[in-house]
Amino acid sequence: MSEYALTVFAICLATGALLMLTYGQGRAESLAVGIISLSVILTPLADMIFSAEPEDFLNSLKGESVEGEFGADGVIEDAFAEGIVHAVSDKFSLERANVRVRLVDFDAKNMRAEKIVLTLSGSAAVADYKAVEKYVNSLDLGVCNVQIEIG
User: Fold this and answer.
1) How remote is the C-alpha of 86 from its chain's centroid?
2) Cα–Cα distance between 143 and 116 in angstroms, integer?
3) Residue 47 pLDDT more than 90?
4) Which of 12, 42, 62, 96 is least surrounded by Cβ atoms within 10 Å, i.e. has the fewest?
């Protein structure tokens, strides 16, 4: 693509020089130089557009393997875990720093985890862990297992 940009720049430079040479002449010469330059610049673009397969364009719109290609799976998993931390800490009035989540077999496509291991520490360790477990299981995000960490 950079070669094309350099070519367009060179054509514009040559066109500008030719237009300066035809400055005193009639308007027809300037118009002819402009049309020739435009056709030389647009021909590669037209070839690229008309040679493209519609199936390739439609496949690119499906977005297959975009998550894995750009490494977004880890970001999605972290955001999912952080969402669970926020939901639990808001629901049970716990400090977010005392709630940790570890996901086992996270599926980014379905936004579910096989197992959600939620660890309550610090002041959150005295919370009703059964209620926390029941709440997270009711969200239908995966099977929740709450662990208490003291110390």
Assistant:
1) 23
2) 6
3) no
4) 62
Going by their DSSP bridges, the two strands 143-149 and 112-121 should be labelled as: parallel
How much is the mean pLDDT over the chain?
Answer: 82
Instruction: Give the confidence band of 61 by pLDDT, cuts at 50, 70, 90.
Output: low
The conformation of residue 95, written as its DSSP 8-state character, comes to -
In this prediction, what percent of the chain has a pLDDT beyond 90? 33
φ, ψ for residue 110 (rounded to 5)?
-95, -5
Burial class from Cβ neighbours inside 10 Å (0-12, 13-18, 19+) for residue 98 reads middle
Whether the CB-CB separation of 139 and 122 falls below 8 Å is answered with no
CA–CA gap between residue 32 and residue 124 (Å, rounded):
79
CA distance 122 to 56: 54
pTM of the model: 0.53
- Which among 96, 144, 90, 104 has a CA at the least distance from the CA of 121? 96
